[in-house]
Amino acid sequence: MKKNKFFLFIIIFLLALIIPFTHVKAASDNYLQKVKDKGTLVVGTSADYPPYEFTAKENGKTKYVGLDISIAERFAKDIGVKLKIRNMNFDSLLVALETHKIDMVIAGMNPTPERKTSVAFSKIYYTGNQYMLINKSDAARFKKIKDFKGQTIGAQTGSLQYSLVKQQMKGNDVKGLAKLNDLVIALQSHKVNAVAMEEATAKAFAENNRNLKVINPGFDIDASQTGSAIGFSKGADSLVTAANKTIDEIKKDNLINKKYIPAAAKNMTANSKKKSMMNYWTYFAKGIEYTLIITVVSVFFGFVLGTLFALMRLSRSKFVHGLAVSYIEFVRGTPLMVQVMFVYFGVGAVIQSLPALVAGIIAVSLNSAAYVAEVIRSGIESIPSGQTEASRSLGMSQKETYRYIIIPQALKNIWPALGNEFVTLIKESSIVSIIGVTDLMYQMQLVQSATYKGVIPIFITMVIYFLMTFGLSKVLGYFEGKMKHA
Fold it and tell me: Which N-terminal stretch is annotated as signal sequence (predicted)?
């Protein structure tokens, strides 16, 4: 009977998470008017794809530039609104579009038949070939697809290139990663033998790294899968029509070849001249600021909620106890990355104004609360029952016993474990970069994109994380020593 009640609590908890989606209604085609009413066009992109979209440093600030950004700026101007860029992983863009976190996707995306089932695409605005990026030392070995038999090929997950490698290079292992910068690092460290990319992007990386070379392996490409288009929510015909009008005007004036690509090349050249990491210290400083904000706020709410759930789990009420157990076990049984994506994309589908930073803090706080709850529970249960009996015999209430007797002693016992959870939180907060929160990990990826360097930004980020966690460990150790002598 007890087991049945426990499973009932689990079902109720899961239903509480799912029910919000039942209120999401299909929107009528007033998409264009909605964008005009709010005065902002929110565009999703993955800014690691030069010359389509990448970052440049201007007056110490991050600026999104490239062919796609220029088209997005022109489109926003044509419909009379301001442009807002949201940078995230390529394979998260369509999820963000589906949950209306963004109004459109422009990221060198190919309008494949599979994508067309859930996405409304504009006309093709640019077409490029599909190439391979290899190490120059392997130029004599690899020239065509057949030369790569048995080798490991890298490609961006969710991209046309990934599908091409899977379909046409079946004798090869495919390594899919979300960021092209990571794939280039894998190539340079010989973890992969080649990276499949769109022509212009492959040439951009090769031109800024003398150890890399571009080849045309001879992919057999369906004409319907080539070219880049703008993606909109299914049914957003008004936005598609407006975008097509802009694309027609851009093509008529040949702006892509005359203006947009030369501007992108100029920014790429400027980036290559500023490869020193000192030029990007403001990026790392901003990343540290956001990482500390996320950590401090999440520690506070994680501790408060963790204490609450610990007391609920120790409650004599079966309902309260079961609710706490259900929450703790569910959160500890699912990855933090999934929880972050669920809060931002899932809950965000209902609360569309939910910012990425707030969603990240909520997810990290809720995750931390489950672990803190178990730490506090174990500390409370470690106190001998005689302490409670003695305090009650002195006329203290249960609330006073917990406040003055149990909690202070338990806190002294669990401080090392609690401190370890707080230190871990600094590192785990890096997960929020997948939804576009500008924490330290996110800023590191921007530096990689801007400088075409992969390892050095990683090393600097690793050192910064160490300094933050080491500093916190010393502070926690100081207070632990104070408790021992109290």
Answer: 1-26
